[in-house]
Amino acid sequence: MAKKQQSSIDRLPDDIRDKLNELLRDPRVTQLDATARINAILAEGDHPERLTKSSVNRYSVRMEEVGAKLRETREVAKMWIGKLGSEPQGEVGKLLNEMVRTLAFKMAMRASEAEDDEPIDPKLLKSLAISVHRLERAAKDNADLEEKIRKQERERLREKLDEVTGGGKKVLDAKRIKELREQLL
After folding, report:
1. pLDDT score of 57
2. CA separation (Å) from 155 to 46, 112, 162, 181?
3. How far apart are CA 95 and CA 84, in angstroms?
4. What pLDDT is stored for residue 113 in this prediction?
5. Which of 38, 127, 137, 138 has minimal CB crowding within 10 Å?
């Protein structure tokens, strides 16, 4: 499969591309002004590349689409984290794991639905396999950590109970049990 040619903006040195991004974010600078300023910088540096207003517009539109998707993702994450804010931290991790699993599944489905004569990119398959493996390992690690924390908490409560009851030698009445509950929980 032939590699897609890089755009003129993708071929720019990082510092000049950063300057272009800065100009495009500034509401006082038009795309035409940004194109002219970047072309002046390129001419000063004897760089052979020049930008067209069309390439800057395509790049600006693409970056705005990416920015919109990021903002949408952040809003969804805020909503879910807001809903799960009172839940244990592990619940947020489980939600994020499930979201990434869903994305990996969608990518795999999209790749399998491609034209029959178009091979599936091996790098995509490798990335999906690695991602799913890491997700499963993270989920197992989270479950192990949760179990370890529960075990430590049970042990802490047993020790506290033994301390308060004198190792089971003291007789407990209803009043004393209520006091213990308040102290331990």
Report:
1. 94
2. 71, 51, 10, 16
3. 9
4. 63
5. 137
What's the pTM value of the predicted model, to 2 decimals? Answer: 0.45
Q: Are 137 and 143 in contact (CB under 8 A)?
A: no
Q: Tell me the per-residue pLDDT of 105-149, one tens digit each, with 9 for 90 and over.
A: 777 676 666 655 566 677 877 887 787 788 778 778 878 888 899
Give the contacts of 112 (CB within 8 A, at least 6 positions apart).
Answer: 120
Q: Quick one: CA dihedral 168, 172, 176, 181, positive or negative?
A: positive
34 has a pLDDT exceeding 50: yes
Q: How far is CA 172 from the centre of its chain?
A: 52
Cβ atoms of 83 and 94 within 8 Å: the answer is no
Domain ranges across the chain: 1-85
Q: For the segment 155-178, what is each residue's pLDDT rounded down to a tens digit?
A: 888 887 777 766 666 666 777 777
138 contacts 97 by C-beta, under 8 angstroms = yes
| Cβ atoms within 10 Å of 161's Cβ, excluding its own | 14
Q: What pLDDT shows up at residue 74?
A: 74
